Amino acid sequence: MSITFGDMSSNPFSLVGHVALVTGGTRGIGLATARGLARAGASVAVVARTAEATKTVVSDIEREFEVEALPIVADISHEDEIPGVVANVTDRFGRIDVLVNNAGASAPFAPLIDVTPKLFDKIMNVNVRAPLCLTRAAVKAGLGHGGGSVVNIVSAAGLKAEPFMGLYSAAKAAMISATKTLARELGPQGIRVNAVAPGVINTDFSKAIVETPELHQSVIAKTALGRVGEADEVAGTVVWLASKAASYTTGSIIVVDGGTIA
Predict the structure, then answer these.
(1) Residue 8 pLDDT > 60, yes or no?
(2) Does residue 248 carry a catalytic annotation?
(3) Which residues fall within 8 angstroms of residue 171, CB to CB, at 6 or more apart?
(4) What's the mean pLDDT when you consider all of the chain?
(5) DSSP SS3 for 40
(6) How many CB atoms lie within 10 A of CB 143?
(7) Using alpha carbons only, how large is the chain's radius of gyration in Å?
(8) Complete domains list, the chain, with CATH
(9) What is the mean pLDDT of residues 164-174?
(10) pTM of the entire structure?
(11) What letter does residue 154 receive in the DSSP assignment?
(12) Which phi and psi angles does 42 have, rounded to 5°?
């Protein structure tokens, strides 16, 4: 039995001719993902709150990978800014094929019963409501014209109990559930929805863990590979999920944690 990839060329991993939108794309996993998508040939819209950083990332992408890139300055935690983000992309490129919901917010270490309503709303707004609203806007704008891909960056913390990280874990668990539901609901339109759940990755987000010797040793002792991950190792999974090589993969949660929860 032969396996084909529809009308794809000889390279099913290529994203040439595709347009990708990446939130939180100026650092860490978001930055690595934006660059990885561009390396695969996609035009990339990079969304972040800081104008200077966004323009710098876009300039670097265009110079290094010779693709078109678009800087978008927005705070997606403000729902009224989301339609403008999508409109900017479609006005420039005429379409959106890949949406990477990467932007997120961490929560302070605290017992779950001590979480205030204000903090609960903030974390859920950024980590759950915003990506759902952005997905809705992208779908309404014709995501992929019947063949789009949504990739939600969640966390391995959403798959297991983690004392004093209950709020963050709950938010990521909510997006894991939402990913599966969206996959079922949008599948008939040809839209695939998956999530990537990183473990501890060497980024600013986990800087305190990586740079504190006792915490670092505790983390790597739990992994199968004996080290923390790098942002590019997460980005590679995102690029695969965005491509036709993953054309029969939807509703999946891909764990990238070095074997910590294996």
Answers:
(1) no
(2) no
(3) 104, 107, 123, 124, 127, 128, 158
(4) 94
(5) coil
(6) 26
(7) 18
(8) 19-256 (3.40.50.720)
(9) 95
(10) 0.94
(11) -
(12) -80, 150
